[in-house]
Give the backbone structure.
Amino acid sequence: MSKGLKQEELAEMLKVPQSFVSKYESGERMLTFVETVSICLAMNITPDTLLKEYLPHHET
């Protein structure tokens, strides 16, 4: 899910160092649930939208 934000812009919104965002992207650092929600809010998406986008779709 791309919003066209630079790492520096997202880091500023989250009030974290840019290196944190870089480590999220590279997989070097795993996000906590709270961080995930904060990123969703900063990107103006809801956590459920993120989950629907990234979780596999299962037929019930």
Q: What stands out?
A: The domain at 7-54 is CATH 1.10.260.40 (434 Repressor (Amino-terminal Domain)).
